[in-house]
Amino acid sequence: MTAWISWTVTAWAFSKVPSGRSPPAPPVPVQAISHKASRALHRWSNELKDFQDGAIRLEKSAGEKLDERAKAEAKVDGKGSKELGEASSAVDGVIQKVRDLEERYNFSPHR
Question: In 3-state terms, what secondary structure has residue 105?
Fold first, then answer.
C-alpha cells in the first residue's frame, strides 16, 4: 500500500511540472538524510577538534618562542647574537607551522 501511495504521489508531482522544466528529484528517505548528516557532522566535529588542539599547541609554542626572543633581544641590546638568531628562527618555525595548519584545514585567508 505504501509503495502505491508513493508511486501515486510521485506520478502526480511529475504531472504538475511545467513543460520545458525537468521534473523534481525523487524523494529521499529521511533516514538516509539523517544518517548522512550525522556522519558528516561527526566527521566535521572530529576535524574541528583536531584543528582546535593544533591551534592551542601552536599558541602555547608561539608564546614561549616570543618570550625567548624578547629575552634574547633584551640581552644583546639591539646587537645580533647567536641566541637571538636561534630565537628568531624558532619564531619563524612556529609561523610556518601555523601556515601549515591553515593549509591542512583550508582556512587560509589567502584563498
Answer: coil
Distance between CA atoms of 65 and 81, rounded to whole angstroms? 16
Answering whether pTM is above 0.70, one says no
Burial of 102 (0-12, 13-18, 19+ CB in 10 A): middle
Alpha-helical segments (H) within 16-109: 30-76, 82-104
Question: Which pLDDT tens digit goes with each residue over 29-50?
Answer: 767 778 788 888 888 888 889 8
Nearest to 64 by CA among 109, 97, 107: 97
The span from the CA of 99 to the CA of 111, in Å, is 13
SS3 state at 7: helix
- Helix axis angle, 30-76 relative to 82-104, nearest 10°? 170
